[in-house]
Amino acid sequence: MRLVAGPAGRIVSGQVLFKGRDLLALDEEGMRRVRGREIGMVFQEPMTSLNPVLTIGRQLTETLEIHLGLSPADARGRAVELLGLVGIPDPDRRLAQYPHQFSGGMRQRIMIAMALSCNPSLILADEPTTALDVTIQAQILELMKDLSRRLGVAMLIITHNLGVVARYADRVNVMYAGKIIERGTAREIYAHPRHPYTLGLLRSVPRLDEARKSKLNPIEGQPPDLVRLPPGCAFLPRCRYAVDRCARDIPPLGAVSDGHDAACWVADRVGQEVRA
Question: Measured between alpha carbons, how far is 110 from 116 in angstroms, rounded to an integer?
Fold first, then answer.
């Protein structure tokens, strides 16, 4: 989305392909037309994402007026419709209120309404429920899932919550040290993890069917320094499946079964242990 200012937000290389276009090749004006109109965004913390000195109504209608060219009256009508769509009661009255007058769950619903306002093709949701309690988390995730399917919008959720992934994701990309190390359908990855890191994540989750005093099975060690990555596999110091080749060569992402890829030199060994 190119929202992080430099120097921290500097893009070194690569491509971001969306609908056949490389977003990194667009100028700032071209990127501004993509943001909100074609790609929506739901941020992690709604209180810092919403402008505290502007009403909710203004924050919703501004996008509609700029991207869709709606008149102020039509934009207001669409804003009322959007607030009703995400479950905010009495939306006409609440348009005049400010972010601090809403609860955390309501603010996140407003962020979802803003992301959906211009009928985008894709919504990026960055840890959309981190700041909410468990009950509200479930409500927000069910709302996002329902709206995504009802409106035909693709949704990419960035999360560390494996429960969220299991319940709501169709396909999963597991990342470590800034790279995708395993990808496939959620069902396949949960049933047959083929990378040691994925296997470690799944084994570290508490289980209700185990004894109360059972110890968790954590991944030993610490994540690597991304500025000084080792020459081989970044997961090597924490991996109990490592072989000599792991220290020399970075494993490529390759197919381990139909529609299932993993970046591991010994993916077959990981798969055998899971099946056993």
Answer: 10
